[in-house]
Each structure stands twice: as structure tokens, then as C-alpha cells.
Amino acid sequence: MPRGIAQDVLASLGLALDRQQWDAWLAMFTEDCTYWVPAWTDEHMTTQDPDTEVSLIYHDNRWGLEERILRIRTRKSVTAMPLPRTQHYVGNVLAKAEGTDAISGTAAFQVAVLETRTNRVHQHFGRYEFRLRQEAGSWRVAYNRVVLMNDVVPTILDFYCL
What is the mean pLDDT of the chain? Predict the structure, then answer.
């Protein structure tokens, strides 16, 4: 059961990003969520502390995600104009119940990205480490650590590509 719930939540996150349904995507996160994409310190280890080490992306609450979406909506993010087209794939979901109202686990992901400005296609891939929490009858993301395996990216890196 936890695996099915986690698969549904992660697939729904990807679909909302692919469709650029920002409000639906944000609604899937808790107010106190953490969204973190650590950098690599060497070929085997990522950074472990976002407060003292470099991160590719780090938000320690939903407000940071909301602010990023506001910049996209108001066209104040020149790097996101025009927005690329994306296709998210999530698989190999491993999840376990943490009591009756929490689930933790990992999943593999791959995102195909078409940069419409240059007509170039590239891929991002890696692993999600997540914690879900049930709030008001819905499962929401309380923690999402995105371990990006190909961190040397050919273009802009943003939440909608991960």
C-alpha cells in the first residue's frame, strides 16, 4: 500500500510539472516541506548540509517554491522564457509506512527536456528520497531530496526539470 500511494504522489507531481499546472504541483507539498538538490563533493558523495555546503537548489519551506513559481508566472525569470517542455518518468519506487500518516522511500526518475528556444533535447536522471505526510485526507510531500546523477547540465537547471 505505501508503494502505491508513493507512486501515485510522485507520478502526479511529474504530470503537474509537465502540464505546467503550478497550483496543483504546489498543493502536493506541505507548508513546512524541504525541497533539496545537493551538489556533488566528489564522484561518490553529495553535500550533506544545505546550510554550510553548496546546493544546486534548496528551499526549506513551501514559500521558496511559491516564490519561484511567481517569478515564472510574472515572467521575471528570464532563464525560464520560454519554458521548456518536459516529460517526467518515475519508477523503482521503494516505500515504507512510518506509522499511519507518513511514508518514506526512494524512487528513480528521468526527465526528458526540450529546450524550445534552441530545439535541443537533454535528460536529467537520478533518485528522489522522499517523505510523505497525510494532511487533511491527502498525501503531501514533506521532504524531497533530489540526487541528480548527471549534474553537469547543458542548460538552466530548475525545479520543473527535476
Answer: 92
